[in-house]
Write a structure and sequence with these properties.
alpha+beta, 7-stranded antiparallel beta sheet, 4 helices, 7 strands, globular
Length: about 160
């Protein structure tokens, strides 16, 4: 298995399902923005970043849950692929402080922005369990529209172009 970014040392579980670089390195946005399907600004609950006004301005799972709830997400129990839903995983340190977020793709694989580095596609949220990110602490989902469901079917049937 190749490791083009050399991240297996940081994320050893990535070796189980591998990863694919899906976009170039940039500091214009972070993993939280990427999980929210945004690539136009940095999301974090501090004065220098964007944070939804409905969410508390602090680094807690409750604040991150509120931020994604403002986008229509609700808690769910796991990261399994559900036909009519899009899911995210919010990671936290052992102290319960949010560290990372990932978004499920229509294929059932996941996408993450690695800090200021590249975006990658990986097999599951468990692939990024590490000392840096901790582990998935919260899963959320939101219902997809009819067009998004059709697009998900297309991706599952025909894969990447």
């Amino acid at each position: 298995m190749t490791d083009p970014l050399g991240v297996f040392k940081i994320f050893p579980h990535l070796a189980n399902g591998g990863y694919r670089v899906s976009s170039a390195s940039t500091s214009g946005y972070n993993c939280i923005a990427w999980a929210a399907a945004r690539d136009d600004r940095w999301w974090w609950p501090h004065p220098d970043g964007f944070w939804p006004p409905e969410a508390p301005l602090n680094e807690t799972l409750e604040a991150f849950e509120a931020a994604f709830a403002s986008l229509g997400y609700v808690r769910c129990i796991d990261y399994s692929l559900e036909r009519r839903y899009e899911k995210i995983a919010i990671y936290a340190s052992t102290a319960g402080i949010p560290t990372h977020a990932a978004r499920q793709l229509p294929t059932g694989r996941w996408t993450s922005k690695l800090g200021r580095s590249e975006d990658i596609e990986h097999s599951s949220p468990d692939a990024l369990i590490s000392n840096n990110y901790g582990a998935p602490a919260l899963f959320m989902r939101r219902r997809l529209g009819v067009f998004q469901v059709a697009l998900r079917w297309f991706w599952a049937k025909f894969g990447r172009a």
